[in-house]
Amino acid sequence: MTTSSDILNRMISTAEKAGSFIREERKNFSYGNVEVKGLNDLVSYVDRGAEEIIVNDLSKIVPEAGFIVEENTIDSRKELNWIVDPLDGTTNFIHGIPCYAVSIALEKKGEIIAGVVYEVSRDERFSAEKGKGSFLNGSPIKVSERKTLSESLIATGFPIYNFTRLEQYLGALKFFMQNTHGLRRIGSAASDLCYLACGRVDAFFEYNLNPWDVAAGALIVKEAGGVVNDFSKGNNWLFGKEISASNPLLEEEFNTAIKKFF
Q1: Among 4, 39, 57, 216, whose Cα sits 20 to 30 Å from the Cα of 166?
Q2: For the purposes of burial, counting CB atoms within 10 Å of the CB of 124, is it exposed (0-12), middle (13-18) or buried (19 or more)?
Q3: Are 15 and 127 contained in the same domain?
Q4: Are residues 114 and 43 in the same domain?
C-alpha cells in the first residue's frame, strides 16, 4: 500500500481531535482520576478516551489495518498497523506541566510509512510521509547542522521503573553534561524526536521505550534528514526498547559515546 496525502491529512485531523479532547479535559482534571498501572506508570480516563477517539477514526481511514496501542482499547495486529500513543507525556499532563502529545504512525512490515505527532500544549502538528519530507504546521523542517557534541543540546528521558541499566545511563549523563551544551528531559519521547527533527535539540537517546513512543517521531526525524539507530548503531529501535537519534553530522561522535556506556 502506498500512503497518500489524504491519509496523512486525516491522520493529522484525528490527532488534533484527540488533542482537543485532552486539552479540554486538562482544564478540570483532578489527581483523583489517576490510576497506577505499575511503578511510576500512570494512566487516566483521558488516555483511554483519547485512544478510543483515535481508534474509531483510524478504523475508517484504513479499515484493513491492525492496531498496536498503549492502552489496549483494541488488540489486533496485521501486515499493516496503526501504532498509537494517545497521550505521550501522561505524567506531565497529570501534573499540569506543558509538553504532552498525541502520536500516530502507520507501519507496514516493520517500516513506518506515515507519522503524526500533535504536541497539545503548543498546538504544534509534526507530520511526515516516507520519502516526502517532514513538516511542522505545514512548513518543511530539517535537523540542525551542528557538527560536534561540544556545540550540541541533547534530549533524553529518565528511566522511571526499569533501572537495570541505571549505572550505564548515569555514566552517559555525566559524559554529556561535561561535553555538550547540556541535556533536557522534556518528558515526552515523541516530542523529543520532533524537537530534534526541527533543530531545537541536536540528539536524543533513551532506553525502555515502546513502539508507540517512537514510531511517528522517528519517521519525522528521518524525513527531516536525521538518523535513527539503536544503541549498537543497528536498526532495532522500533521494538528493541532503545533509541538514539541525531543529525547526520553528529552521528559518529554521538553513537560512539552511546556505545561506550551501553
Answers
A1: 216
A2: middle
A3: yes
A4: yes
Neighbours of 158 (CB within 10 A): 11
Same domain, 24 and 129: yes
Tell me how crowded residue 15 is: count the other CB atoms within 10 A of its CB.
Answer: 29
Domain assignment of residue 177, given as a range: 149-261
Residues 69 and 94 in one domain: yes
The pTM of the whole model exceeds 0.85: yes
Q: What is the pLDDT of residues 172-186, one digit of tens each?
A: 999 999 999 999 999
pLDDT value at 3 more than 60: no
Amino acid letter for position 158: F
CA distance 114 to 8: 7
Exposure letters 217-241 (e unless 16+ CB within 10 A, then b)? bbbbbbbbbbbbbbbeeeeebbebb
* Higher pLDDT pick, 225 / 4: 225
pLDDT per residue over 32-73, tens digit each? 999 887 766 778 999 999 999 999 999 999 999 999 998 665
Same domain, 157 and 200: yes
Q: How far is CA 189 from the centre of its chain?
A: 4
> What pLDDT is attached to residue 249?
98
